[in-house]
Design brief:
disordered C terminus, alpha+beta, four-stranded antiparallel beta sheet, elongated, 10% strand
Length: 297
């Protein structure tokens, strides 16, 4: 069956993200974490501990450790996610066991190693996650939990699971520094994942309570060509009817809109909140599923 243009584009993007993500993943694990003697968490961290104890290859060990997690999460994550993840895991294994051993690992300050391990791991995993795949291991468990509880942050779930592996580094490496460096690397990893995955579509939400909703809405449209949604409300203290305007905007537009609203209505009450993602016209266009999302693959 021939692939249409969109399918070919998706396949190319999957391969590029697997290559770049797998490369970053290997840099984080092999180049920075391995010689600094700490476990950054997850099955890759557990594989590092096994490598430290018995010198077994990190990539192959990670693949073997993946088996029970695959069996556990198969029904939740579905066949498509599993197959894409197996492809990604092969790329990661090749980079960790066959490519980067030919390059000298970083042997400097362990704190810098922990920081850069987290940055590269986070960037690599974020690229992989954004294409609907994973590097295996506790990623399967992470994505299973994310599927069951979609309101949870992927970075937070990852960090919670990784804590157990990090603590194992204390008796294995023989010092508390291994735990501290592991915590730093994992915190940086989860932060980078969230910033890349959610920060790209991030923006601000302005909540404006005003008695001049039409004038304020017109000003917002004039200044930044942004629409707003008006909701009727009543002040409980004054019992005065007011309008609540909701306006999603980019971070760079906040100051202009804030000033414009107060210029139009000096008595307006404004609240500005963070939004992790904004979908719709003028922002990120949502991808509609090809099939019924309630149907399991």
């Amino acid at each position: 069956m021939s692939l249409d243009k969109k399918d070919r584009r998706d396949l190319i993007l999957d391969l590029v993200c697997d290559l770049v993500g797998g490369c970053f993943y290997a840099i984080g694990i092999y180049t920075f974490a391995k010689t600094a003697n700490f476990a950054p968490g997850g099955l890759s961290g557990l594989a590092l501990i096994i490598n430290y104890l018995w010198n077994l290859p990190i990539g192959i060990t990670t693949l073997i450790l993946n088996i029970p997690f695959i069996l556990f999460s198969y029904k939740v994550v579905g066949k498509k996610f599993l197959l894409k993840s197996l492809k990604t895991m092969v790329f990661c294994t090749i980079f960790v066991d066959l490519v980067f051993p030919h390059f000298s690992p970083y042997s400097g300050n362990p704190l810098l190693a922990a920081l850069f391990s987290g940055v590269f791991l986070g960037a690599g995993l974020a690229l992989i996650y954004m294409r609907g795949s994973s590097s295996g291991g506790t990623d399967f468990l992470t994505m299973s939990i994310k599927t069951l509880f979609p309101h949870l942050s992927i970075g937070l779930v990852t960090m919670s699971i990784d804590l157990i592996v990090i603590l194992l580094g204390w008796p294995v490496f023989g010092n508390i520094d291994a735990v501290l460096y592991g915590l730093i690397a994992t915190f940086v990893t989860s932060t980078v994942i969230d910033k890349i995955m959610y920060g790209i579509g991030a923006g601000k939400l302005m909540i404006i309570i005003t008695t001049k909703s039409r004038e304020v809405a017109a000003t917002i449209d004039e200044i930044c060509a942004r629409g707003s949604t008006a909701i009727r409300g009543t002040g409980t203290y004054t019992n005065t009817e007011r309008q609540v305007l909701l306006c999603a905007c980019s971070k760079s537009e906040v100051y202009k809109l804030h000033s414009a609203v107060y210029h139009t209505d000096p008595e307006a009450f404004i609240m500005i909140t963070e939004t992790s993602e904004v979908f719709g016209e003028g922002f990120t266009e949502p991808e509609l599923p090809k099939t019924n999302p309630s149907k399991k693959e």
